[in-house]
Amino acid sequence: MAQGQVTTEANDGLTTRQRRNRPILLVHSGTGKGKSTAAFGLALRAWSQGWPIGVFQFVKSAKWRIGEQTALEALGRLHEETGEGGPVEWHKMGSGWSWSRKAGTEEDHAADAREGWEEIKRRFAAETHGLYVLDEFTYVMKWGWVDVDEVVEVLRTRPGTQHVVITGRDPDPRIVEIADVVTEMTKVKHPFDTGQKGQKGIEW
Amino acid sequence: MAQGQVTTEANDGLTTRQRRNRPILLVHSGTGKGKSTAAFGLALRAWSQGWPIGVFQFVKSAKWRIGEQTALEALGRLHEETGEGGPVEWHKMGSGWSWSRKAGTEEDHAADAREGWEEIKRRFAAETHGLYVLDEFTYVMKWGWVDVDEVVEVLRTRPGTQHVVITGRDPDPRIVEIADVVTEMTKVKHPFDTGQKGQKGIEW
């Protein structure tokens, strides 16, 4: 349902216009499929609004290129060529972030993750993107690679209208607390349970 | 996790290659956000595989144009111009399907829905698409506008490798039974609960 019913009157002193332009923090958690996929689907909406999109994949291998990256980067090129939609940047931690001169090492994911978070902080301060997809960022917090209290503070005080989607299992309760929308994707049935193999176009 | 672990050995007499090319039926259900959004995210993957995509929106108003449509149709045009990715068709029931000469009426959603289903049956038979997004199709079944046993039979016997995603709340148990992947999106927290308004780029 695209236009939901507001079931409660807000009591926050904001005008409707202000509420309609409030920066949103979304969390996609749970054990099921669709956490990242729904985040990339949201990026489609952001693109059509002309918002600059920044995707930051924290755990996936750098060798791994998923179909969503190919398609969203194609939309980014379309923006460059025609002005339609918005620009798209896609960064993967893997073995070193693309903005970094130094190659990361397989051994120090923690340092790579911290470097990614430092870059995101700089971008929040500069209001670089309209939508940030922090893919699998819950694990970075869970494993103690970044300080959750600092993440909460940075998210709470980010300037302007910068929307953020965090994906991954087991989000920290402090993140859930400050999130505007939290959706849990629950696996009801999955082909891997019956020995089905992952397949291209569906799994990646 | 893009490459899942297979936890059970398959006992279906198929080779790995056959299993990797098996047509998949996915169901996105639940009361939370992300059912349709994740389906459109999946369409990004399908596009990058070069599969012809067919989106069929069964309930949304025809006047309503969501950002995902704008973005996926832009990818479809990119395919036409450069050959990259796959073609995209987006059809809305609203007040009459786009392939139909006659305008639908506000009063007869049931007839419009049946017409949509008849078209989808023809496309399955012709193997028109690699991915079908049947958005909010669970309601069409729930409200008795199409015969669920017929839908099950058509889905079970569809030829070739045609993947299907059905979205919506309360999927019929017979559909869940034949589905390969069922994910339930559960609302943990939603801004409408606290009087937040829907906003462009996030809700549509």
Q: Key terms for this structure?
A:
globular; 17% strand; 204 residues; homodimer; six-stranded parallel β-sheet; alpha/beta; 7 helices; Rossmann fold
Question: What does this 3D model show about the protein?
Answer:
2 copies of one chain form a homodimer. Chain A is α/β, with parallel strands linked by helices and 204 residues long. Chain A is built from 7 helices and 6 strands, in the order αβαβαβαβααβαβ. In chain A, strand 2 (53-57), helix 3 and strand 3 (88-92) form a beta-alpha-beta unit. In chain A, helix 2 packs parallel to helix 3 (67-82). The longest helix of chain A has 18 residues, at 109-126.
Summed up:
2 copies of one chain form a homodimer. Chain A has 204 residues and is α/β, with parallel strands linked by helices.
Topology (SSEs and partners):
Two copies of one chain form a homodimer.
Chain A: H1 16-20, E1 25-29, H2 35-48, E2 53-57, H3 67-82, E3 88-92, H4 109-126, E4 131-135, H5 137-142, H6 148-156, E5 163-167, H7 173-178, E6 181-189
Parallel strand pairs in A: 1-5, 1-6, 2-3, 2-4, 4-5
Q: Averaged pLDDT of chain A, please?
A: 84
Using the CA coordinates, give the radius of gyration of chain A.
17 Å
Strand share of the residues of chain A? 15-25%
The CATH architecture of chain A is: 3-Layer(aba) Sandwich
Q: What spatial order of strands do you see in the largest sheet of chain A?
A: 3-2-4-5-1-6
The level-1 CATH class of chain A: Alpha Beta
Structural class of chain A: alpha/beta
Q: Could you say what the CATH topology of chain A is called? A: Rossmann fold
Largest interface, C-beta closer than 8 angstroms, per-chain residues: A-B, 82 and 82 residues
